[in-house]
Here is the input.
Amino acid sequence: MASILSIRESSKRDRTTRRKQANILLHICRAISEAGAPAHRLESYMQVISDKFNLEASFFAMPTAVLASIGEDEYSQRSYMIKTNPNDINLTTLHTINAVINELENNEISLDDALKSIKAITSQPASYPNWLFALCFGLVGGGFTTLFAGSWFDVAAASLLGLITGIITIYSAPYKYLSQLLAPLAAMIVGFTAITISHFTENIDHFLVSLAGLIILVPGLGITVAMRELSTGHLVSGSSRMAGAVTNLFLLSFGLALGYLIAQSIYGETTVHKVDAIPAWFNYCALAVTALCFGVLFKARLADTFWIFLSIGIAFAGSSLIGVWMEQPFKSLAAVLLVSMAGNIYSRISSNPASVMHIPGIILLVPGSIGFNSLSAMYTNDTMTGVQAAFNAVLIAVAISVGLLVGNLIVPPKKDL
Here is the structure.
């Protein structure tokens, strides 16, 4: 009788442990999905954790939901659906979740404490104040203007327009219906303001500064991630993410065209004013400031600043040097290959997510501005230019996806996060 009671008690403890492990898996799913992890990384990472728990599990990730089946074997699985809210990339969340899992794997923390830590991570407030986010929008806008060969006046105007975009983005977030209009509303205001500045000062390229001011909202990274998911067989997630990115491009282009139309109906036809480009040395200063701003916008830890600098430096130097011998999309392929290998080496040495280096490096190479130019050309009835630009954008996205895959082949990551 005592033996039977002991077996029942042991079985009850095992079921309790399994429920806790399943609960942890579901919370991790939600946390890293809302922190911006793409489907291929999320599913691979969750599979590794499930194996550590000796659980039979399978995961199906989409941008707005994750389906999970978890159990001791394939005949005793329970299915769950986790509704997620797609948010901006949060490198701090990815890092701290990974740290908790490392402690769990090394038996340095109990299941209960791990679950408390994960819940605390997902509920913690923003690492940086809103005014700093808005300022970084402006600084990134000015920084990208240097990459587009703008003038000093263009840099100043793009910084102002980027600041306006940041303010609209931050303060529209609490309001459901206003936030749904973010892309066209911000683009319309930026377009109108750019034409206004050009009309009264006659020293800026209003199209260039509009693009730079909106660059954070242009979904170049979304297009690249979608192409990566499609190339790794995650067809549902990749297709839906691509559809969302292309829709966002249409909304931005429509809003910008509307802003131009309203401004030109008031001021008349406004010509593009080209002024001498800034000196080459300023590009490096702008690159350093942009790297710091990406650390804030991606909510990275201060301790990761060096690695973000290194990643962006590798992407910029690789693209510049290889561009001497190769044209697009092959220089993007080679540059992202270097970024991919560097991020994987960093992950293997530090046990931190490779995303800390991958995402900032890739962001300089993504084809968002080309896709934006494509739609803008089509709005002005320049169909051939628009189609050619769209084709180039797709080629660059494919090249970046292939570069990441080859980098993983040469230097496999320690973990898929």
About this structure: The CA atoms of residues 348 and 414 lie 5 Å apart. The mean pLDDT is 81. The longest strand covers residues 56-62.
